[in-house]
Amino acid sequence: MAPPPEPGIGKAIGWDELPGWNDDRQAEAWPALLQQCKVMAKKKPQWEDICHAAVALGDVDDNIARTFFESRFAPHPVIPSNKEDGSPGIGLVTGYYEPLLNGSFSRSKQYRYPLYTVPDDLLRIDLASLYPELSTMRLRGRVVGKKVVAYLDRAAIDGEDSPLWGKELLWIDNPVAVFFLHIQGSGRIQMDDGSIMAVGYADQNGQPYTSIGKILIERGEISREDISLFTLRQWLKEHPQQAQALLEKNRSYIFFQLRENANEAPRGSLNIPLTPSRSIAVDPANIPPGSPVWLDTSYPGEPDGSLQRLTFAQDTGGAIKGYARADLFWGNGEQAEKLAGEMKQEARLYVLVPR
Predict the structure, then answer these.
(1) Closest by alpha carbon to 55, among 37, 74, 29?
(2) For residue 200, which of 250, 251, 114, 265 has the smallest C-alpha distance?
(3) 27, 114, 175, 295: which is deepest, by most CB within 10 A?
């Protein structure tokens, strides 16, 4: 038996080998392409001609959009890492969304859990010019004496004597909601005066991300089949004495900033608004940012309900690591929360590489 292929982006295949390609509404993905062209045309030479041609077309229908991608890109399967036994792995697609929280600009008995802005002592460490292998890593630290050490973790920042007092952006009424906002990376805030504010990712502490869901699975608290945003929330609600200690197992911590337009979608790592159900977060070490990516997966709870569509790699995330790994942005609202909270689907990914 031939050994499984090496993980990574494989050789080009034909468009007729792309499952469901002719059934997608590619015109729905066109706005996501035009959004990222504002950035990609300046960053990568091969995208300049692609974006010039796309902008010139203006509004398109599905056939025009499909023909455009077929003429300018070639599909390449993403080969997942092998399993521990050496057998071929399979990709994974999860989901994320923009939650709605309750907050205030003032601390009170009700609103007492902070969202912090970027601390003054947080250092961004860029060693990519010397060590290119570090270019995709978010290295953060702080100065202690004459040393640069790792930045504070979640337990230190959320402790009673937090060194970040005074750097609060907003105050929220629920600590679990704050934790999951850190996971999602952006959100909208229903303020106590009736207004709506929006917050987005500003930076992070550089500490590693740890899934509390994985911890609960390993402890036998929740089965792998049942793990979701909703079962995690329920467990935390039912175990208040253990909740904080569990949350602190995830040492990663996000710092936020106010977004200028609360009605605009949050911005991903390309600094463009995300497009619901057409933008994904990927591992930039394995899938180039801005790449069109064909998803072949299913809806959560519907193994026979195929979900095959064109998306764009417009974001990254601390939990998104590996080759055939993606996080699909669903937008905001109850339906987006449900889809994002339950999604953990097996998937096949195909990167469309510029010709």
Answers:
(1) 37
(2) 265
(3) 295
Q: Is residue 43 left, alpha or beta, with left meaning phi > 0 and alpha meaning psi from -120 to 50? A: alpha
The CATH class that applies to domain 98-258 reads: mainly beta
Q: Which amino acid is at 322?
A: G
Give the tokens for residue 334: 């109850």
Q: How many CA atoms lie within 13 A of 135 on its CB side?
A: 10
97 vs 95: CA distance, rounded Å: 7
CB atoms within 10 A of CB 90: 11
Distance, CA of 22 to CA of 98 (rounded, Å): 30
CB atoms within 10 A of CB 278: 22
The span from the CA of 110 to the CA of 103, in Å, is: 9
If one counts every other C-beta atom within 10 angstroms of the C-beta of residue 11, the result is: 9
CB 262 within 8 A of CB 198: yes
d(CA 96, CA 98): 7
Residue type (1 letter), 73: F
pTM: 0.90
Task: State pLDDT tens for residues 266-309.
Answer: 999 999 999 999 999 999 989 999 999 999 999 998 767 799 99
Where would I find the beta strands (DSSP E) of the chain? Answer: 8-9, 73-79, 91-98, 100-104, 113-116, 123-124, 140-144, 147-150, 168-172, 186-191, 196-204, 254-258, 279-281, 292-299, 302-315, 325-332, 344-354
User: Which of the listed CATH numbers 3.40.50.2300, 2.60.40.150, 2.40.40.10, 3.40.109.30 matches domain 8-96+266-354?
Assistant: 2.40.40.10
Q: Cα(first)–Cα(last) distance of the chain, in Å?
A: 33
Domain residue spans of the chain: 8-96+266-354, 98-258
